[in-house]
Amino acid sequence: MRPPYEIWLPRGRVLKTTPVFHTYWRFASERQEMFMRRALGSTPPWTEDPILSAHRFTNTYRSSDRVSQYLIRHVIYEGSQKPEEVFFRTILFKLFNKIDTWKALRAHFGTVSWGEFTFDAYAKVLDRLFDNGQRIYSAAYIMPSPAFGSPRKHRNHFRLIEHMMADGAPRKLAKANSLREVFELLRGYPSLGDFLAFQFAIDLNYGELTDFSEMEFVVAGPGARDGIRKCFTETAGLTEAEIIQVMAERADTEFKRLGMKFQNLWGRSLQLIDCQNVFCEVSKYARVAHPDIEGESGRTRIKQKYTPGPMPIPQWYPPKWGLTPNIDFFYEQPPEAGPSKSLPLDLVS
Description:
Blueprint: E1 6-8, E2 14-17, H1 19-39, H2 50-54, H3 66-76, H4 83-96, H5 99-109, H6 119-131, H7 153-166, H8 169-174, H9 179-187, H10 194-205, H11 222-231, E3 232-234, H12 240-257, H13 272-289, H14 327-331
Antiparallel strand pairs: 1-2, 2-3
């Protein structure tokens, strides 16, 4: 039997891996290839991997996912760019994390705005949806209810938004000096634990309210912790955040070692949030690919099946990232040539 692959770190520390570690990189590469094949206009199937073909996984890059794309294009950058308005729209959207809920509010009010927000009016819109049996929260996150006295979670979340706005959260975040400080500010609000506070910090950082590197700070969620456990038998005392940092720094080395030409996001390398995300997704993938390797969750099946969407989703990234559109140049490239460094506005996610 081949000895386990080891990663030697400074001060004699050694990370010892399992076969899932190699799968991590193959998953990241093939999932990004699927994204690029769709982007180049190929028709399905976009992969020959039977697990990726049958089950739903998020994109390798978090910002390329459907909900993130909608948030960036239609929530953060559509409307007033005043700090309080951008903060209000972003937090409101993310507390529910469901496009249909946002569209329902837009359909009723025309413009979703803190300046025109009233608790009763917004609460009644979602009351009606709830009473009609419509799901108003995404199943992507477990969204705990803050304790503001209502038996209905969405009403408590509207109270949470009021509390954050009254506390001057937009002004405080605009003065933050780091992504970690943004996280810590959000972490101080009711019901926002480590995972949600970090996810919301990343979402707010897509806009102009803050502008910090995604390589600065990371928090591992439950799924990522499960993935880390499956990838390593020995972590040399490193924290989960430090392991994610190692993965981001070693990405080019590992892709080259495994003979893979990774197609990055038009020149944007994998960031800490993306490597955290891939750990979460490979944890699910390994339930089928490596059923003998256990994680923390004890789960053995992948629940969500994959069905290709019927409509293309426009791709649009934060302008401050500098991914400049150049559609003609991009579409001249054959799929095997890899993407250009230019970003078309209307690609399939």
